[in-house]
Amino acid sequence: MDVEELxxxxxxxxxxxxxxxxxxxLDLNLDIISEKYNIDKNKVLKxxxxxxxxxxxxxxxxxxxxxxxxxxxxxxxxxxxxxxxVIYKKGSLSNKPKLAVVGTRQPTKKAVDFAxxxxxCAIENDYTIISGLAVGIDTIAHNMSIEKKFETTAILxxxxxxxxxxxxxxxxxxxxxxxxxxxxxxxxxxxIKKYHxxxxxxxxxxxxxxVIVIESTKNG
Length: 220
Prior knowledge:
By secondary structure, the chain is α/β, with parallel strands linked by helices. The protein is 45% helix and 14% strand. The chain has nine helices and seven strands, in the order ααααβαββαβαβαβαβ. The longest helix is centred in the first third of the chain and has 20 residues, at 41-60. It is elongated, with a radius of gyration of 18 Å.
């Protein structure tokens, strides 16, 4: 099944059903699924229009769409129970071992120093740093990679045409200029929601061999 067919199923809000089909090795046939779940033909047509919008937007903004069955789809995400059906990507996926460095948006000086120390240690040992482009610890981790001219990957809670937070748009461009990567499971039609941050965190954890939380509140 190609990426546009997966996008169509996703636009039809069949994510959970499709994950079950994939996990059980069942045939993902749209006609069979539509008949079984009584999906209205007009809804399918509208979803096809939405898919075209998404694909056209990605082409215009040089965003790659990776479907679950694509060779370039990160293997680490396949281990998730709630794996993304599609991933949106800018830049180059890392083939190095990965370490997530994350933490509070308002770090203490001690945390800032430790984040830099950990990041340098990871880079010197040939680990790609994974973080979330947020202000604070995430920014420090990404910037240390850039300063050392080493690739880094940001996994975003937003789509790639509306970078969040806006204050780090310039940082996202530096990541790409440094042979890094931006990843998200959201397209330009998806408005950012609170739960996107939790979803983003699960991808960071899945993509990395370990997650280092430099500093955080209990709520964080």
